[in-house]
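Mods, move this if it's the wrong board.
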Amino acid sequence: MSLYSIIKKPVVSEKSQVLEFAGVYTVIVDPKATKVDVRSAFERLYGVKVESVNILKTREKFKNAGKAGIVAKRGIEKKAMVKLADGTRLADFQKILSEKK
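Not the wrong board. Structure tokens:
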């Protein structure tokens, strides 16, 4: 798995914005990626020291669509919360990932 295919996109929410001030960055990663993969991708791509990586899977969400029945609204995603070492920060995280594409 290449470094560029591990990290998909950043999670933009109120909670993730608050966590960025504490040095924790939340990203959506490849479903097959492990903690070791995410750690090495962050350290190589951004040149930062990673302290810890937490991974979680979101559940699938559904909605009622009248006669069509229940349809999937959003699929299962895998998120990684990457905590950087003390004093380490990324300048503008959303801008860095958008330029990568």
